[in-house]
């Protein structure tokens, strides 16, 4: 037995529905669609920022979403990643077409791999285009060892991220360049003199993250920065001179310091870094903490003469490290003494990571547990773990 609305009323309702004008039905559908598409109601400035965060292809495709979106991409801050916008042979033409038609400012520009002179000329044209005015992020790579284009430095007042690879940075080009907003700097497989490298870092007062990989031209890097928080270095280079020493003269906010090459020797001196919590090193790293006690683990058979000579200093060192990572740990005496130094003297140490050869790993670890003075750790927190 059917209950609810009488059948006669149902038939009447259906009849009225059938008599409803088509225009009224269409208007209702449009209102429903508008309710669902609330994002299109946002101001054009906000939509432009959203589009600028999308990969280049996806940003361009927003033009087909609706009439409202048709012109937004060309007026939004440009995010131009040249490795994902077209086939290699057609890339220069596509790149120049985009850059010539874009009406907004620049957000990010990532150059393509440079195969021909046409690629180079297209990149140089982009760097001079008003479409990249006020650029925030620059990734210029595979410049085939050529001097960096001088046009790059027109972005120095606005750049926040710079990734420079496979190029040379001549002294005269860098002279007087200042990057007030730069927070992240990466130099890869490039050539830069020691004087220019240290001046460049000093002229980046907002620099927080520094990465130097396989560069040549400088032997010593000096850090004096109120804001830098992390430094990573792979100092191997097939050419001389290469980086041999890092001196942290004053870095009150530095938290992480990494030596990323396990065979290339590097001397690291930390004079003032009260917030340094993580050191990543290899058995080719030499550390000087507080300007006096040198800690080395790169010479087989070396006895820890420094430890006997500086026992009076160890009591006064305030080592606030929480994490130590030692790559290529071999278990020889110099490695064991190196690790034990931090176990016995770092009062806030939480984690020690030793990267070892996996051969006979269980036997090796059992032997190392006997050598490492884990029961005498200076850190109470570590003892509880």
From TrEMBL:
It holds the Pfam family F-box. InterPro entries: F-box-like_dom_sf, F-box_AtFBL13-like, F-box_dom, F-box_dom-containing, FBD, LRR_FXL15/At3g58940/PEG3-like. Residues 1-36 are annotated as: Disordered. Residues 124-284 form the F-box/LRR-repeat protein 15/At3g58940/PEG3-like LRR domain. Residues 317-354 form the FBD domain. Transmembrane segments: none annotated. Residues 39-79 form the F-box domain. This is F-box domain-containing protein.
